[in-house]
Amino acid sequence: xxxxxxxxxxxxxxxxxxxxxxxxxxxxxxxxxxxxxxxxxxxxxxxxxxxxxxxxxxxxxxxxxxxxxxxxxxxxxxxxxxxxxxxxxxxxxxxxxxxxxxxxxxxxxxxxxxxxxxxxxxxxxxxxxxxxxxxxxxxxxxxxxxxxx
Length: 149
Description:
This protein has two domains: 9-88, Winged helix-like DNA-binding domain superfamily/Winged helix DNA-binding domain (Arc Repressor Mutant, subunit A, Orthogonal Bundle); 95-148, Ferric-uptake regulator, C-terminal dimerisarion domain (Dna Ligase, domain 1). The protein is built from five helices and six strands; from the N terminus they run ααβααββββαβ. The protein is of the alpha+beta class. Helices cover 40% and strands 16% of the residues.
């Protein structure tokens, strides 16, 4: 099994069932849009769904679905520097590159680097804290616009 892929629609249906949630047309449309976009805000997902014209949604309903799925651990979420919530369809360990000019996230898959960082930090103790996870985000701006399309 490839651990570097988001759940396809059939896997997503099984995940919903395991969480006692119905595979509604709106939830399925949100997941299809998330698979296409990877990292997206509720506005972006709503635009994607409306552009397909197959399911009726509002930004509020999409945001509620995304938030609920993130609370259940099906999606992850990140806050951008423009104070907008972006949801992430990929919940496996990976590094994010945040484009601070365009407010976009890109996944960097580097299992070796993540393992090195986790091994190094796993030996450290931070007084008064129990570390629950490591979240790595690189911040930059594009040198050429074509790289962040």
